[in-house]
Amino acid sequence: MGPPGAGKGTLAKRLIAKYHIPHISTGDMFRDAIKAGTELGKTAKDYMARGDLVPDEVTIGIVKERLALDDCSHGYLLDGFPRTLKQAEALKALTESLKRTVNLVINVTADEAELVKRISGRRVCKNCGTPFHVTNMPPKKEGVCDNCGGPLFQRPDDNEAALKVRLSNYYASTKPLLSYYEAMNVLSNVDGMLGTDKVLELASQLIEA
Ligand code: AP5
Ligand code: MG
Ligand code: ZN
User: Which residue among 16, 53, 91, 151 is least enclosed by CB atoms within 10 Å?
Assistant: First the structure.
């Protein structure tokens, strides 16, 4: 969990490389669907461009399918889901029935001025979704992904107007879920203002504890 630009995707990519579990990012799934021109992509496209949340039924549906796959039987990492109380409740019911319950929720924190800087300087790999930053985390070769050699681009929702909407949706719909997970005794905070190595180290300690 964490606001837009806190570093969820950056941390997630590093955790899955270390722990070899699937990375389930609803944002990446929607971006892949848009790229492939599927019905899901057509549904998600306008919501995402505005910074609005994609409707719960659609989002819950894709997570339901993904979590039921065999590769999630030894663990999985959700990134960007759940984002509403309805999604959190659906996830609870689903993971209980699959016997794949969520046992750790990592909340990556960062202040708003930093979020704006991170979002405006972000460049993302078109092929594998790895995020870079023009000054914080530049790729070895400008415009090229270190991970797969794919081209880097700026996300269409990384503009001032869409970011405003994303932030307000975060405060209204997603931030309240922190107390939901706190009440379930699974929530831990990680200071996302720290460097990416430190963030990875702190998150790894939580996973291994
Ligand atoms: P999504 O793709 O999830 O976007 P988001 O939540 O807005 O978060 P971001 O991906 O922008 O930020 P991040 O925290 O991953 O940061 P990153 O690691 O890239 O969702 C996009 C859209 O899809 C939504 O608006 C919605 O429309 C739809 N959607 C997705 N899930 C949905 C759901 N569940 N329900 C409904 N709709 C849904 O890092 C940001 C930048 O900072 C990068 O440039 C990075 O290099 C840099 N950086 C990262 N960590 C550090 C660090 N420690 N120090 C310095 N720089 C850092
Ligand atoms: Mg992300
Ligand atoms: Zn790549």
Answer: 151
Q: What is the pLDDT of residues 67-108, one digit of tens each?
A: 999 999 999 999 999 999 999 999 999 999 999 999 999 999
Residue 122 falls in the annotated catalytic set: yes
Residue 37 is inside which H or E element, if any? none
User: Which residue is closest in CA terms to ligand 1's atom 27?
Assistant: 48
Q: Is 51 exposed, middle or buried (0-12, 13-18, 19+ CB in 10 A)?
A: buried
Portion of the chain with pLDDT greater than 70, in percent: 100
State if pTM tops 0.70.
Answer: yes
**Contact status, residue 117 vs residue 197, Cβ threshold 8 Å:** no
Cβ of 162 less than 6 Å from ligand 1: no
| Phi, then psi, of 160 in degrees rounded to 5 | -60, -45
- Annotation marks residue 31 as catalytic: no
